[in-house]
Amino acid sequence: MTEDDLIAAAREAAERSYAPYSNFAVGAALAFADGSVVTGTNIENASYGLSLCAETVAVSKAMANGVRGGLVRVAVTGPGVEPITPCGRCRQVLNELAQLGGTDPEILCVGPEQTHRVKLSELLPRAFGPASLG
Fold first, then answer.
1. Is residue 132 assigned to a domain?
2. 3-state helix/strand/coil string of the chain
3. 134 domain-assigned
4. What pTM does this model have?
5. Structural domains in the chain (count)
6. Which domain holds residue 40?
7. In terms of CB atoms within 10 Å, which end of the chain has fewer, N or C?
8. CATH code (residue 31)
9. Is the pLDDT of residue 1 over 90?
């Protein structure tokens, strides 16, 4: 899957967002070494703290399907004029999946005009993960 295809998948996921409170539709697409892609979108809740971010939904879907590593690239897109980055919680959730496969995925922070590329380890340096427990 090309970078453009992954970004398109994230944008398509954002179209399915349930964001009636913030009107901030976010989409995420996770690319794996085997060529598979899993998408997610943010899902808000009237009890705001129960809302789910797009990246967390995508990781949850992947893990529920038995994926335990192989994460190589993530695209995240949302509204606005600037590229968005995963929030702190999503950085940690992505890190868990990445560490299970020993990868440091490239994160594509997508805006309407530009894409910012950064490694997950740059967004979450000295991350706590599975290896930290043993």
1. no
2. CCHHHHHHHHHHHHCCCECCCCCCCCEEEEEECCCCEEEEECECCCCHHHCECHHHHHHHHHHHCCCCCCEEEEEEECCCCCCCCCCHHHHHHHHHHHHHHCCCCEEEEECCCCEEEEEHHHHCCCCCCHHHHC
3. no
4. 0.96
5. 1
6. 3-126
7. C
8. 3.40.140.10
9. no
pLDDT tens digit sequence for 13-36:
999 999 999 999 999 999 999 999
Helical pair 54-64 and 3-14, crossing angle rounded to 10 deg: 110
Separation of alpha carbons 5 and 102, rounded Å: 24
How far apart (Å, rounded) are the C-alpha atoms in residues 76 and 29? Answer: 7
CA 3 to CA 74: how far, in whole Å?
9
pLDDT of residue 134: 78
Question: Is residue 133 situated within a structural domain?
Answer: no
| Residues acting as catalytic residues | 55
Closest CA to 33 of 100, 114, 89: 100
Q: Give the whole-angstrom CA distance, residue 51 versus residue 35.
A: 29
**85 inside domain:** yes
